[in-house]
Amino acid sequence: MKKKLLVHICCAPCFIAPYNHLKNSEWEIHGFWYNHNIHPYLEYKKRLITLQRFAEKENIPLIVKDEYDLEKFLRNSAFRESVRCYSCYYERLKYAAIIARKGNFDAFTTTLLYSKYQNHKMIVEIGNSLAKEYGVDFFYQDFREYWKEGIMLSKEDGMYRQQYCGCIYSEYERYKNVKDIEKIVDI
Q: Which residues have a Cβ under 8 Å from the Cβ of 4 and sit 6 or more positions away?
């Protein structure tokens, strides 16, 4: 009998390659969506809908905590912009740990471990800390090895692919120094 793994999913493109590798392993995969950091609202909805379509197509059980909480994100980030990722990771992984415990999962993990742009060490430290606090294992795997594969698979699948982590700060950082911004802006 397979062990149950709850995977916090930041977006479908970051999930597709890790899922393809995990689905034939010892794990029964369940997805979990909670991403209060993604802004603006239309970006949040695009990512959620893309994930829901993929989960339905692949018959992946998906738990959705559909809470767009701009105010909470801003309160946690304001005047702490340089360390904003910590609270963002913590909030999402905390809810994953809570759901994993309540749902009798054997472990939880996150697709944040897929992105080469995220603070991998910090994510692992938070995951392990929450595992102790909530009494459910944190499953660690460095999914970054699947980076190129995930890009290829998500493009083949026609997924909506975002160009920043999701928060308003990362969106700003991505575009602030673009020389020909008029080419990007759809007006």
A: 27, 28, 30, 103, 104, 105, 106, 107
CATH class of the domain comprising 3-184? alpha beta
- Which residues have C-beta within 8 Å of that of residue 68, sequence separation ≥ 6? 36, 41, 44
What beta strand segments (E) does the chain contain? 3-8, 27-33, 62-64, 107-110, 137-138
Helix (H) or strand (E) holding 77: helix 70-77
Measure CA of the first residue to CA of the last residue in the chain; give whole Å.
54
The model carries a pTM of: 0.91
User: Is a pLDDT exceeding 80 seen at residue 86?
Assistant: yes
Q: Is the preceding peptide bond at 18 cis, omega within 30 degrees of 0?
A: no
Under DSSP, is residue 28 helix (H, G, I), strand (E, B) or coil?
A: strand
Residues 16-55: pLDDT tens digits? 999 999 999 999 999 999 998 898 899 999 999 999 999 9
Q: Which sequence spans correspond to the domains of the chain?
A: 3-184
Question: What tokens were used for 80?
Answer: 């702490």
Spell out the residues 6+ positions from residue 22 whose beta carbon is closer than 8 angstroms to its own: 5, 7, 29
At how many degrees (to 10) do helices 12-22 and 147-156 cross? 110
Q: Are 152 and 23 in contact (CB under 8 A)?
A: no
Contact 162, 15 (CB under 8 A): no
